[in-house]
Design a protein that fits this description.
mainly alpha; globular; 265 residues
Length: 265
């Protein structure tokens, strides 16, 4: 993949490092929906649990990459107890049955309200839009992944839940304050105006520091979901494990570049 293609992978709002959150979101924040409103939105097409588990395993591994996120053990230790807006669930257990289809709510209820889902979809597509390298984030169900992630009843996910929900509430309020519309209804230019204020934590104004922490976490989750799909692999030129009928050794150009000879056939 050429340098030009590599640069094309990164949209302006994805360009900041995928780092962990430096400061927690405030314990209180504006509400997107009334307190008595249901948060969970029915889904016509449910993600297979095998896919969700694969995604979870992938983000657990990627969270240990340099610059991607804080150490998982440290995050778990620092994770606060779920707030009143959370939910109690047992999770998958130690030996989930992957061949079984689970209906929504069998393990844990999903979180996003319809308004929150629209905001998540709009922000994910702003960060990872459709281009010549691949589809938009929503086309590979990135919002579904984020919903599953923050709904899981585990310490790290519950910590992320607080950050994401309060960040979405801030985004909804900020959109109406600046443009008198919901974030999902803004033009891409208007969305970018808000995103540009929070996509680089080091440059964010003091009043945007918490929102910038939200954006860092959201961007990391969105990128984890996107690049854990076949479309995401294709975008970065990742082939994966491909079965070979035979193996004739490393390519000649590789051997020449390393200055070595193949002595065993």
């Amino acid at each position: 993949m050429s340098a030009e293609d590599s640069d094309a992978l990164v949209s302006p709002s994805l360009a900041a490092p995928l780092t962990g959150i430096d400061e927690a979101m405030p314990s209180k924040g504006p509400s997107v929906v009334p307190a008595d409103a249901t948060r969970s939105e029915p889904m016509a097409a449910r993600l297979p649990r095998r896919t969700v588990l694969k995604w979870f395993a992938m983000i657990a591994a990627s969270s240990r990459l340099p610059g991607f996120g804080a150490d998982s053990a440290a995050e778990a230790a620092d994770a606060p107890a779920p707030s009143a807006g959370g939910h109690a669930a047992k999770g998958y257990g130690t030996d989930p049955v992957l061949s079984k289809f689970y209906a929504p709510g069998d393990f844990w209820p999903l979180t996003f309200s319809p308004d929150e889902r629209r905001t998540v979809t709009a922000l994910a597509d702003l960060i990872l839009p459709a281009d010549h390298l691949g589809p938009a984030a929503s086309e590979v169900r990135t919002p579904d992944y984020i919903d599953e992630w923050i709904s899981a009843p585990y310490p790290i996910q519950q910590k992320d839940r607080e950050v994401i929900l309060q960040g979405l509430a801030w985004l909804a309020e900020e959109s109406r304050k600046r443009f008198q519309k919901a974030f999902a209804l803004l033009t891409d230019e208007q969305k970018s105006v808000i995103a540009d204020d929070i996509c680089w934590p080091a440059d964010a104004k003091p009043e945007f520091k918490n929102a910038a922490a939200f954006f860092v976490k959201f961007r990391a989750l969105a990128a984890s979901a996107y690049y854990g799909t076949e479309a995401g692999w294709k975008a970065i030129g990742y082939v994966g494990n491909v079965p070979l009928a035979s193996f004739d050794g490393p390519p000649k150009e590789v051997l020449e570049k390393l200055g070595v000879e193949q002595t065993v056939i």
